[in-house]
Amino acid sequence: MATLVSVNVGLPKDVAWQGRTVHTGVWKAPVDGPVLLRRLNLDGDGQGDLAGHGGEQRAVLVYQLDSYRHWREFLGRDDLAPGHFGENFTVDGLPDDEVCVGDRFRVGGAVVEVTQPRVTCYRVGLRLGEPRIPALLVAHHRPGFYLRVIAEGEVRAGDEIVHVADGPQRVTIAEIDALLYLPGHDRSTAARALRIDALSPGWKASLRALLDQPEHAGNPGLAAVAAPPAWPGFRPLVVTAVEPETADVVSLRLAAPDGIPLPVPAAGQFLTLRLGPGLVRSYSLSGSPGGPAYRISVKHEPGGAGSGYLRDQVRAGTTLDVAAPRGTFTLDRSDRPVLLVSAGIGATPLLAMLHDLADHPTGRDVWWLHGARDGAGHAFAAEVRALRPGRRVICFSHPRPQDRPDIDYDLADRLDAGVLSGLDLPPSAVAYVCGPAGFMQDVTAALATAGVTEIHREDFTTVAAVTPGVRPAAAAPPRSRPGPGPTITFARSGVTAGWTDTDGTVLNLAETCRVPVRWSCRTGVCHTCETGLLSGAVESVPEPLDPPAEGTVLICCARPRSDLVLDL
Ligand SMILES: Cc1cc2nc3c(=O)[nH]c(=O)nc-3n(C[C@H](O)[C@H](O)[C@H](O)COP(=O)(O)OP(=O)(O)OC[C@H]3O[C@@H](n4cnc5c(N)ncnc54)[C@H](O)[C@@H]3O)c2cc1C
Ligand code: FES
Question: Atom 9 in ligand 1: which residue has the minimum CA distance?
Fold first, then answer.
């Protein structure tokens, strides 16, 4: 019989960490006497970051005395006491390699059900003063697990934990944790786990992604994975044609100097061009993925270094340094309706998808929804018309007198939530959205309101930062920094930095340069920091538990072995 040894609660508080402030509920302390366990929390407990912790699926975190004994010995620590691993229930019994997802227990007056393993996150390392711990919990098969509350009731230290029902399929916590985070990803276990109703929706989505993705290296359960890049680093391609689209958009066609056909990209991918020292810019492929040459379409930004160079210096015959097509914003192969929603130059990756859909007709219901200022700024109008999407809605925010309603445009309006709500969009659709940040935010919310659940977005700027629990600091632009070691170019941010050994990891260097970054565990487990490596080589310290996709790196455990160009 297992026993509840300690009930631990704590409300979120601000904690200083590496010069920043983290809002976290990982500090838990034992409570004497009975505590009411409710659907979302124990009384007196809370989480600092509900995106990563807490909620109905993760109401109670459980950790075992036996794991405490293990870590005391492994880490040589004699200070570890109940609550130190951020858990609400410290228990005697219920080992991770015996407890199964869906098992139900009665504890005191409450009934609970096992939903998933612990979320791997740096905050347990922060609590223990041991940054390696998120990776160690997984590598040692001792993550602990979360409970959902089936029946609310009082619990107290000393309560017996009575097993009242077996979870179906008998997949243990240790097994499912290893299935997602460690190499191997046994597909039959993933399929079995997906049949467990009690498994949390987040884990189901990860396991489904593992099953759906063709087998490339990388971990599609944790980060979207593309096919390996068709060539390493940069190679010369020749501009074969320069074609104006509008007054400020020009298309360039690129081919191999020897005329050998280029590898076929996935519709929606982008190229990265090295235009000069520290001047690296990315452009979505806008033409048919099977076409004889690559095509990019560049909008000239006033004062823009990259777009200015491409407009002023590049002619047919110019050779450019180009990295292989990359990106995971790519057309799915389902038969569901597809919504291609763009504004301005954001049309480019969606135009490649429209070409692909026209080149390989499958009977999919294809919607082309596009916003431009007016007819003068409306690129690709004739091309899109010729590709005959099933439904085409063009919005001009400021039509000119000569722009013809129902011919040049359909609505004199911005393409926004109001317009989308009147279109009777199919909720079963897969949506692809690209345009300015405000547009994407508005459109994504409107699509979700219309019931569309699968929405993919391509950002033409820096990545949207993921820094769980860190209090936002005053906004400041990215900045370059000299250093004695290899040069690291952060392409999206337009920043170049010299490496110094005290940086420790590329993630730390990016943070020093105020480059927007994404991370969660900071020790090579969660793949949140997976980033396209456009050129160069890294060494991993520590080695990630499961290697990232080919052509990418986990920047939280990467150090440069040469100059690097990163899609960050
Ligand atoms: C995946 C991806 C796909 C993309 N696809 C396309 C595409 O298909 N077509 C396309 O046209 N673009 C695309 N982009 C954007 C493209 O990479 C460039 O960001 C864009 O061309 C602008 O670069 P630039 O060098 O011309 O401008 P930058 O020199 O980077 O400047 C951008 C703007 O900021 C202003 N600016 C620069 N520095 C400062 C400063 N210090 N203070 C104030 N303002 C400043 C400039 O005047 C300019 O208006 C894509 C980007 C990504 C990441
Ligand atoms: S932040 Fe988790 S793998 Fe890098």
Answer: 298
User: For ligand 1, is residue 281 a contact (CB within 6 Å)?
Assistant: yes
Q: 67 near 141, Cβ under 8 Å?
A: no
Report how far residue 323's alpha carbon sits from residue 182's, in angstroms, rounded to the nearest whole number: 30
User: Measured from the CB, is residue 494 less than 6 Å from ligand 1?
Assistant: yes
Please classify residue 384 by burial: count the beta carbons closer than 10 Å to its beta carbon, then call 0-12 exposed, 13-18 middle and 19+ buried.
buried
Nearest ligand, measured from the Cα of 529: 2
How far is it, in rounded angstroms, from Cα 190 to Cα 277? 46
Which SS3 state, helix, strand or coil, does residue 65 take? helix
Q: Kindly state if the Cβ of 531 falls inside 6 Å of ligand 2.
A: no
The burial of 244, by beta-carbon neighbours within 10 Å (0-12 exposed, 13-18 middle, 19 or more buried), is given as: exposed
Q: Which amino acid is at 378?
A: H
Decide if 109 contacts 22 (C-beta within 8 A).
no
The SS3 call for residue 266 is coil
Q: How far is the CA of 58 from the centre of ligand 1 (A)?
A: 41
What b/e readout covers 360-374, taking b as 16+ CB neighbours within 10 angstroms?
Answer: eeeebebbbbbbbbb
> What is the rounded CA–CA span in Å between residue 254 and residue 266?
16
C-alpha 133 to ligand 1 mean position (Å) = 39
Q: Which ligand is nearest to the CA of 468?
A: 2
Please compute the mean of the pLDDT values over residues 377-404 and round it to a whole number: 97
* In 493-549, alpha helices (H): 506-512
Q: How far apart are CA 14 and CA 21, in angstroms?
A: 6
Please tell me the distance between residue 304's alpha carbon and the centre of ligand 1 in angstroms: 6
pLDDT digits (tens, 9 = 90+) for 476-527: 899 999 999 999 999 999 999 999 999 999 999 999 999 999 999 999 999 9
Counting ligand 1 atoms within 8 A of each CB, the residue from 243, 280, 282 with the most, and so the one to mutate, is 282
Could you tell me if 17 and 45 are in contact, meaning their C-beta atoms sit under 8 angstroms apart? no
**Of the bound ligands, which one is closest to the alpha carbon of residue 269?**
1
Q: Nearest 10 degrees: CA dihedral of 148, 151, 156, 161?
A: -70
Structure tokens at 69: 């004994």
Beta-bridge partners for 391 = 367
Question: Which ligand 1 atom sits nearest the alpha carbon of residue 302?
Answer: 49
CA 120 to ligand 2: nearest atom: 2
Q: Which amino acid does the sequence have at 30?
A: P
Those residues with Cβ within 8 angstroms of residue 19's Cβ, 6 or more apart along the chain or in another chain: none
**pLDDT, tens only, 144-194:** 999 999 999 999 999 999 999 999 999 999 999 999 999 989 999 999 999
Any atom of ligand 1 within 6 Å of the Cβ of 307? yes
For residue 216, name the pLDDT band (cuts at 50, 70, 90). Answer: low
Which residues share a beta bridge with 454?
430
Ligand 2 closest atom vs CA 556: 4
